[in-house]
């Protein structure tokens, strides 16, 4: 028997055992898995019954199973609404900025942190860029108001001191999207580097040593060793990110939108709130939310298929 066959033989014997016996053997691992499993069942799978509202004329007093079934009427209404194209344009614009600027920036930041040789300085800097992640969007937007408002805002006061006119950052359609992306970067770019830094730590140091002996510069090391070493992680995280491509989050957009920038700031998330919570159109808002989820699923499946075609692992 070869060494490979000798190594595989115990695995084959293990698979022949009954399922319950194998589960009992690994009972402690399954026990540790229970809290996470319970979380997903209670908060992710059970609420999926609410999807039925998207196909009903939902009445709270009748409940989900007692309300009238209307099929795709709410979807037809949504796609025919004049607001649909405005919402789609605004959402896609911010989503593309998020994917095209924020996501690559987390990779660049991780690469820069990885190049720091002083451990004390590196960990201090990591702490500084991680801290904003733990602030709520209410605090982040509040800081933005303090800095940018025309009535005593630090930046506008500085502009006035230098002889320039004050800028209506918070009321301007032009500045709305840059502010949204800058807030995302400041709050979450540092936190987004964690997985990339872990992947960078897993690259074999002997590869760098061999390349240095051959005279490779830092840029060559980055291009030929570092980036290929974390390529699979980048692909997987990008695929997962596409699942929430048009799910921009509610809090930040809602807090930044006002009457003067609503034309570029209204997105699917805020629209669901207005029609669902404020106007009580539960079934219609559920249809809009389901549309977002279906688009995310299609993007994940398509990106995973493309990644496998290009030779990457994908997420399944």
UniProtKB/TrEMBL annotation:
One of its GO terms (cellular component) is plasma membrane. InterPro entries: MetI-like (IPR000515), MetI-like_sf (IPR035906). Residues 88-303 form the ABC transmembrane type-1 domain. GO terms for biological process: transmembrane transport. It is a multi-pass membrane protein. It comes from the Bacteria. Its main location: membrane. Gene3D superfamilies: MetI-like. It holds the Pfam family BPD_transp_1. This is Multiple-sugar transport system permease YteP. The lineage of its organism: Bacteria, Bacillati, Bacillota, Bacilli, Bacillales.
